[in-house]
Specification:
Layout: E1 4-10, E2 13-19, E3 23-26, H1 34-43, E4 53-56, H2 61-64, H3 67-74, E5 77-81, E6 92-93, E7 99-100, E8 103-105
Parallel strand pairs: 3-4, 4-5, 5-8
Antiparallel strand pairs: 1-2, 2-3, 6-7
Amino acid sequence: MNFSFHRVPLGIDNCFLLRGEHTIFIDGGAPGGLNSFVKHMQQLNVDPQQIELIILTHGHIDHFGGADRIRQRSGAEVFQLVIGGGFNGRIIRVDSGLRRRAQGVRHHQKIKGI
């Protein structure tokens, strides 16, 4: 499987873009990073609509705070790792002020379509 891996700095956090058969964004950065996200996607020649999945690694605000805005821009599904890190299936507050439940993913769990 061929894929590329790109660091995407969003504020104080580094997020990552994986491109291959699927396009996956890891973490959402801190709140307020949407303009930086759009700029980096343009530099990488990626239309945000190509992102199929956003994976949140843990429950620190600098890793999930901007995820809902990126989800709104991309239409991607959001998954969270449920081992440690402060998620564990709880409802998370995202920077848009909306509440939504991200789908939990466990170690070695297959994600349908990915």
